[in-house]
Design brief:
Blueprint lengths: L14 E6 L3 H17 L7 E6 L5 H10 L5 E9 L5 H20 L3 E8 L2 H6 L8 H22 L7
Parallel strand pairs: 1-2, 1-3, 3-4
Helix pairs in contact: 1-5, 2-3
């Protein structure tokens, strides 16, 4: 039986981090968590590109564009949606999730879903703490693992995934 598992070593890998400006009081903390995780895992600063977008709806578009460049080994999507009094929350959350899934499938590049969907600002801030209490850290570590899994799979089948 074969066993393939990713690594938590990011040296030599390139990452895009897509972060919206909306709900900055949370997203800037999540960005800091992701960047700290990447640095701790050995990613060089020059191998990380932060892409700022207006809000969560625009994350998927930017992630797909970044993946299509073939410059990045993985794309990390961060964001924060806080439930309000209208159904807008559900529409944006659904569009972001489907868009990110579609982007990863279409490009063959690992794209992690680090968009918080919370009921309150307090819940969002609880998920923007330090290290593993920061969902930005978690999304970055998942991106590292998926990028390294993909490298192993491509060694097994050098033609890779046809997109």
């Amino acid at each position: 039986m074969d066993h393939i598992e990713g690594s938590t070593k990011a040296a030599g890998l390139r990452f895009a981090v897509v972060v919206p400006r909306f709900n900055h009081f949370v997203t800037h903390r999540r960005q800091a968590g992701a960047l700290e995780a990447l640095a701790t895992a050995g990613a060089a600063g020059a191998d990380v590109t932060v892409i700022k977008v207006p809000g969560a709806f625009e994350i998927a578009f930017a992630a797909r564009q970044a993946a299509e460049t073939r410059h990045f080994d993985a794309v990390i999507c961060l964001g924060c949606l806080i439930r309000g009094a209208t159904p807008h929350f559900e529409f944006i959350a659904s569009a972001a999730a489907h868009g990110i899934t579609d982007a990863a499938s279409a490009t063959g590049v690992p794209i992690t879903f680090g968009i918080l969907t919370t009921n309150s600002a307090e819940e969002a801030l609880e998920r923007a703490g330090s290290r593993s209490a920061n969902k930005g850290w978690e999304a970055a570590m998942a991106a590292i693992e998926m990028a390294t899994v993909q490298k192993v799979l491509r060694r097994i089948h050098p033609a890779g995934i046809q997109v």
